[in-house]
Amino acid sequence: MGSVAALPILYGLQITELCFSREEEAVTLKRIIVRKDSYYDSVVLMSISAEIKKIDGVTEAVVAMGTEVNLALMQDMGLDDDEVAEAGPNDLIVALEAEAQEVLDRAVAAVHELLRAKSSGEAAAVYRPTGLESAVKALADANLVVISLPGRYAAREARKALLADRHVMLFSDNVPIEQEVELKKIAEERGLLMMGPDCGTAIINGMPICFANAVRRGDIGVVSAAGTGLQEVACSIERSGGGISQGIGTGGRDLKDERVGGTMVRMAVQALAKDPVTKVIAVVSKPPAPALVPVVMKALKAGGKPCVVHFIGAEAGSPLENIRYSNSLEETARMAVALSRGETYTPRVFDLSEDEIAAIVERETAAMSARQRYVRGLFAGGTLTDEAVCVLHEPLGGVYSLDPLDSAFKLTDPHRSQAHTIVDLGEDAFTVGRPHPMIDASIRTERIEQEMQDPEVAVLLIDCVIGYSSHPDPAGAMLAALGAAKERARANGGYLAVVGSVTGTEGDSQNIHAQRRKLESAGCVVMPSNYQGAQLVKRMMARRAS
Amino acid sequence: MNVDRIAELFGRDLKVINVGLEAFADNLVELGVEVQQVDWKPPAGGDTRILALFDRLAANASQDIDAANAEAVARIMQAKPTLIDIGVASDVVPGMHNKLVLHAGPPVAWQNMAGPLRGAVIGGLLYEGLAGDAAEAEELAASGEITFDPCHHHDAVGPMAGVVTASMPVWIVENRSFGNRAYCTLNEGLGKVLRYGAYSQEVIHRLKWMAAELAPVLQAALKRRGPIDMKNIIAQVLQMGDEGHNRNRAGTSLMIRELAPHLVMLEEPKEKLARVLTFMHENDHFFLNLTMPSCKSTIDPARDIEASSLIVAMARNGTEFGIQISGLGDRWFTGPAAVVDGLYLPGFSAADAARDIGDSVITETVGIGGFAMAAAPAIVKFVGATPQDAMTFTRRMYDITVAENDTYQIPAMDFRGTPTGIDLFKIVETGTLPAINTGIAHKDPGVGMVGAGLVKPPESCFTRAFEAFAERYGRCT
């Protein structure tokens, strides 16, 4: 494009025309840089790509490792050259497209700046071990190894950690079931924790591992198959005045797949039963594989301590010896707190009085137009999604989702809602090439913008998960989109109800109260828990139907 | 099912190793938890085939690789390299003859030789009087009448081009624990010298003087002094700011100290002795040609140990970088020699640089040189880095070695032993390549040294060696 800059001098008077034609044709410039042998984590690079795309004048930006998938992607985008074709998974590729040379320069500088900020081993002045063996030498008394690598490498490192007699938290997903079985077998032989794969949350000795909240320490031990399930229970315990001794994640397949056999749930329960600090044990999971129900029950009974069990979506059973069943994540917490204090538990759905709830329902539904009849749930938390689906599926006559209770209600296109739909935006369909919605708020705000085009939407149900590793201000990031959606409904002669809850605590850097206030400022009805939010929506829809 | 270990975790301070997203480490660090972040990158360079091979072999080798490597490293530690004499190559170097030219690195034919090596060959032939001028020398070299062979095939090592011809004087170092010997020419100094491919009158003239005066005088002094324990001296130089490859100032000074009292006692004119002492004094790299055969004699007994994946030679000929593996005999595994990343002498730039060349990486194979950079903070000036970088270079090398040296130590790292015994497996798995610091020759014959810096070996030679190792020692099923 150097020739374009020279043209005005040659053709004098044609300058304006030239500029016009340039604008009309949207001339774009490309720059591709390959940096050999510079590995960065894909999540880091995705967030850098997102940052660079925000630069004015940048039309396309890919900052990625040269994996096969990425190379194909770049080829499709026309952002490849010979050097890119030669790149391997350890080579960093920066491919930029912009309207002007100086924009490219700025973008390249910004990439370097961001990469430096994220730091890496390359030319880092301070030594860092390159593998687990040397890390174990560097921190000889390390007792937990946290692994968040691409799935195909994760099990390999986890195995090494277990064989070095360290407990493991495996955050990575996409780990084959065979590898999970093998890892948990090694863990069982050695008496080690093997949390995960796909374990998003743990609280060990009061410390938040990966996505977790600042909760006070106490005497309730929680074992949870999934991340946001553990977060919701832990935060509800905090809100009810209780505290957590340990929060152990097991990964979603531990109880769901017979091959894994509930190994980690059993071991966690047994360890909590022995733990002198823990007085009550809470277990949260999707319904186990039928063969594994007795396995869990046996472990819980053997421990002898009071236990609260919640199988999301399953009918709560009647109490049995030391085991009680609860109906929701929140109730799990409240029952556990009551047990730990020796108090009697009184069931209730809402914190607010029936009158107050009726008033909210009336207020939120009064101005809806006749065509507004559907609920749309847009969630960042997987377990919170499941809980909302479970509450609303029956009363609404079916809720479409990606992981439905009834396969007839499987959402055809993840990117398009139909009738009542509740989606977990953390599913793979949404996160290929982008960070999880708990980090990147734009996945949800884009979907809100899409939903508001649909005049049949009556209620938007959302979650808002805060705490360590989460977006620094998830509520704030949603405000504009929520405001616009409400405005749109008003312009259409209706009213869009927004219902949500914040999973978090006062101790979290985002602060639960500040987040609630922000959501409320956008007209969102903020309920004390995800369960109560879903229950409120149920009431609203019942009111609409009557 | 025993859960005592989990109970133990609950009762202790959490200490975490974080592999992956650094944000997870940051959370914990903020809360005062001790965290070690791992600088992870895909193992085996992301090559899934090699990684699968690696895991299969690690789990199921036909022989005990760890034990073999322990034996190999034990032999390195037991070595007692001792300087015993100076001799003439054709008299002492095994297989040496008048029509044989030894060179650095893996084997390479005349037509594939890089500029500096061609220049040194020309110089060597001129020096031996086998050719009258450069053109004649080139003709002779191409004629097939001259045999070219790596120094390593003759118990020898040579810096840069590493050319050794029949009448050149050589240091003789004997490993007193195993009885094997290693040979290396005497260092000619810096600037226009044969090892950097220069072959002018001045170069040949200096070589002649070295054979006629320097070598006999030093030999006589050494005879009076008696054998010198090189291991002891190398251990000292690491404590004096040398790393034994690219910085040899302390070593050269120590040699002068060792020899001076005996030099003055020789029945030689003062002028002659002064020339010898001045020559040593003016050449900081005089000692390099002593560390190299010391290292060569140290590591040779670690060769040919069944199932050992230890690297027993790394060497470059200016065209290719080659390695040899203990458990794979004399076979070379090569890849293209890299361009050195370094600083240039005034008037030269990267455009003038030849590719990586020389046997001097023998020092790194026994845990000095680039592996001991932390001992030589002054060296970082060469490579435009900081003393902190030098520490980092050395620390990284512990990730690819099997032992810490029991004699060579780094004062600034609380006298930690240098990383010793490079394990092919660790290189392949971690993707961390040996750190090498080296000189840079001009790409054209006849010019000489243009700079110095750091160089990375090509990954491909390690991958190839690993595949061969897997084929040899993988259990057939």
Task: Break the fold down into its secondary structure elements and pairings.
The complex is a heterodimer of chains A (about 550) and B (about 475).
Chain A: H1 2-11, H2 15-25, E1 29-35, H3 42-53, E2 58-65, H4 68-76, H5 82-86, E3 92-98, H6 101-118, H7 132-138, E4 144-148, H8 151-163, E5 167-170, H9 177-190, E6 194-195, E7 201-204, E8 207-210, E9 217-224, H10 227-239, E10 244-249, H11 253-256, H12 263-274, E11 280-285, H13 293-303, E12 307-311, E13 323-325, H14 329-341, H15 354-365, E14 374-379, H16 382-392, E15 421-424, H17 428-431, H18 442-451, E16 457-465, H19 474-491, E17 497-503, H20 512-521, E18 524-527, H21 530-545
Helix pairs in contact in A: 3-6, 8-9, 10-14, 12-13, 15-21, 16-21, 18-19, 19-20
Chain B: H1 4-11, E1 15-20, H2 22-30, E2 34-38, H3 48-59, H4 65-78, E3 81-88, H5 89-92, E4 100-103, H6 115-127, H7 134-143, E5 147-150, E6 169-175, E7 181-185, H8 201-225, E8 228-229, H9 230-238, H10 249-263, H11 270-281, H12 288-299, E9 311-317, E10 320-325, E11 333-336, E12 341-344, E13 357-358, H13 362-365, H14 380-383, H15 387-397, E14 401-410, E15 416-422, H16 424-430, E16 436-441, E17 449-455, H17 459-473
Parallel strand pairs in B: 1-2, 4-5
Antiparallel strand pairs in B: 3-6, 3-8, 6-7, 9-10, 9-13, 10-11, 12-17, 14-15, 16-17
